[in-house]
């Protein structure tokens, strides 16, 4: 018997990249996974990769009604949700003076409002149970990055939300922490032009990209009993990117 036996983790943006890596890591630790994604086919693929006992869930984090329905379905299916990982995110990069209203708003809707909607639903459930773990995926870009005014603003907002929720939920036995990944090897980063890719690598003291499993390991720590007295914290997973 492990300390995570029968525990359920819901991961948003689970269809690919970092989200799938988080799911794979938590599944290996013994969690039952609800792989949630706006792309149900991608979420289904993740659940299939994980194996028997794991489920896919269609979830549009930018739609509060969709979030509430998904949580109702998840609780009905598994009875409880012990860990929620807010990983879903998008980017629509542009220099600020060229950024459209649509590019600004859609990133805020998914990357910040989506985290709030999911966290609110999770908080309602976890407060009743007087236990739970919320892990929010922010980004090293929260401090600002050229061409990412929308993304940086959203990811900085995620940290403010994390600190607030940590204060609000502490007495209910719920911890809330954040992870800031750096340059992680995903389909998105592999599509970056070679010169920009190398420029990013040059900023990393360890000289390499991270793997989704590196982020997954950090999530697994915050979700574990070993982190039961840790809340309102931010962990950088970036190979020294911000040194």
Description:
- The chain has a seven-stranded parallel beta sheet, with helices on both faces.
- The longest helix is centred in the middle third of the chain and has 29 residues, at 101-129.
- By secondary structure, the chain is α/β, with parallel strands linked by helices.
- The relative contact order is 0.15.
- It has helices spanning 17-28, 40-50, 64-78, 101-129, 149-169, 187-190, 194-202, 212-223; strands at residues 8-12, 32-37, 55-58, 83-86, 132-137, 174-181, 234-237.
- It has one domain: Rossmann fold (3-Layer(aba) Sandwich), CATH 3.40.50.
- Helix content is 47%, strand content 15%.
- It has eight helices and seven strands.
């Amino acid at each position: 018997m492990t300390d995570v036996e029968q525990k359920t983790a819901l991961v948003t943006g689970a269809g690919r990249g970092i989200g799938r890596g988080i799911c794979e890591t938590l599944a290996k630790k013994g969690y039952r996974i609800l792989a949630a994604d706006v792309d149900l086919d991608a979420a289904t693929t993740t659940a299939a990769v994980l194996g028997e006992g794991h489920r896919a869930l269609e979830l549009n984090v930018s739609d509060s009604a969709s979030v509430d329905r998904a949580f109702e379905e998840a609780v009905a299916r598994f009875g409880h949700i012990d860990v929620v990982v807010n990983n879903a995110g998008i980017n629509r990069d542009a220099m600020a003076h060229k950024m459209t209203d649509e590019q600004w708003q859609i990133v805020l809707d998914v990357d910040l409002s989506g985290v709030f909607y999911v966290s609110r639903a999770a908080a309602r459930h976890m407060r009743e149970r007087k236990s739970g773990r919320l892990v929010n995926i922010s980004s090293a870009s929260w401090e600002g990055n050229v061409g990412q005014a929308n993304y940086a603003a959203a990811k900085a907002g995620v940290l403010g939300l994390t600190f607030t929720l940590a204060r609000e939920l502490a007495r209910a036995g719920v911890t809330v922490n954040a992870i800031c990944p750096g340059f992680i090897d995903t389909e998105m980063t592999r599509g970056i032009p070679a010169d920009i890719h190398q420029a990013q690598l040059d900023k990393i003291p360890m000289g390499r990209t991270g793997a989704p499993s590196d982020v997954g390991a950090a999530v697994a720590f915050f979700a574990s009993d070993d982190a039961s007295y840790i809340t309102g914290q931010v962990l950088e997973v970036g190979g020294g990117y911000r040194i």
